[in-house]
Design a protein that fits this description.
Blueprint (H helix, E strand, L loop, with lengths): L3 E3 L5 H8 L4 E3 L7 H4 L8 E4 L7 H6 L5 E4 L9 H6 L3 E4 L5 H16 L6 H5 L17 E5 L3 H12 L3 E5 L14 E2 L2 H7 L2 E4 L13 H6 L5 E4 L8 H9 L5 E4 L9 H4 L7 E3 L8 H19 L1
Helix pairs in contact: 1-12, 5-7
Length: 306
């Protein structure tokens, strides 16, 4: 019986801080064995997860003493919030702690996709010397489009402007006239799609945002534009994206998230031969952000249990 069960990787210092006051069971591989988690929750008062552990109503039922769930990140689509609310379980995301990491990922991905030389290591090493095909484009003077204008998008906009980009954004939850659009020019969705040289997604996965970037949206984008998704996989219709890339209707894409995670070799085969950067849901995870996220959630869980 443990007061706190942690099912995915967390910074050692944060775990040690919790262990001073509570009995902690830490097994970062539990997300790969979802069915084993329920058997560990007898007497457990708090559960700490990342994005792979599915916190369902059934899992919460297996831990009737759980009063708090800490999320080592900000997305909550792997947590049944209605079930948590019904059981008076507080859910704590690490809001703000990994904003800088995601913003840096977006800018890095944009520069890599535009300046194609960064993707040419294998060809250069083979002696091909593809100078003409790898000239690429500069990020300065391009327009960054942000779908969603929350904290991460704002930090991305700050970095983009420092590199000489113009920034436009669309967020239906911010009033286009009276809302705070500091750092970006508000546009409607069509204006965002048609105006962006780099389109970056910063929205949660909901019924309204599922496949919001699909065939129709992609057809509105410039053929030389690039797409970056470090939000949630279901926001992009992957099949429609691959079709657009194959037809040269889009210049490239960076995907850190996928409709089904982890991405399998079979599922990933559709990206073969396309101008894509694929990373394993890691945009918000750096050595520094892991420390910040872990410390914040440790503090929130400690306060909740105290």
């Amino acid at each position: 019986m443990a007061d706190i069960v942690i099912t995915e990787f967390m910074d050692d210092a944060a775990i040690e801080a919790l262990s001073v006051e509570f009995d902690v069971h830490y097994d970062p591989g539990l997300a790969d064995h979802q069915d084993d988690i329920a058997g560990l929750l007898t007497g457990t008062r708090a559960l700490i997860v990342r994005n792979r552990t599915r916190v369902t109503a059934e899992l919460l039922d297996a831990g009737p003493d759980i009063t708090a769930v800490g999320r080592l990140g900000v997305g909550l689509d792997n947590i049944d919030l209605d079930a948590a609310k019904a059981r008076d379980v507080q859910v704590f995301p690490a809001t703000g702690a990994n904003d800088a990491s995601v913003a840096e990922y977006v800018i890095t991905a944009a520069m890599m996709l535009l300046r194609t030389a960064w993707l040419g290591t294998d060809e250069v090493a083979s002696g091909t010397w593809p100078r003409t095909s790898m000239i690429g484009r500069e990020i300065g003077g391009k327009t960054l489009g942000l779908l969603g204008y929350g904290s991460i998008a704002r930090q991305t906009a700050t970095r983009a402007r420092a590199l000489g980009m113009d920034v436009i954004a669309h967020d239906p939850f911010i009033d286009p006239v009276t809302g705070d659009w500091t750092g970006a020019s508000p546009v409607d969705l069509k204006g965002l799609l048609t105006g962006a040289d780099v389109l970056s997604l910063h929205v949660p996965l909901t019924e309204q945002t599922r496949h919001v970037i699909g065939r129709d949206a992609l057809s509105e984008m410039k053929s030389e534009a690039v797409l970056i998704n470090a939000a949630r996989g279901g926001v992009v219709d992957e099949d429609a994206l691959c079709a657009a890339l194959k037809a040269d209707a889009l210049a490239g894409a960076a995907l850190d998230v996928f409709e089904i995670e982890p991405l399998t070799a079979k599922a990933g085969a559709k990206f073969d031969g396309l101008n894509v950067l694929l990373t394993p849901h890691i945009a918000g995870v750096t050595e520094e952000s892991n420390v910040r996220v872990s410390a914040l959630i440790a503090e929130k869980i400690r306060d909740a249990l105290s």
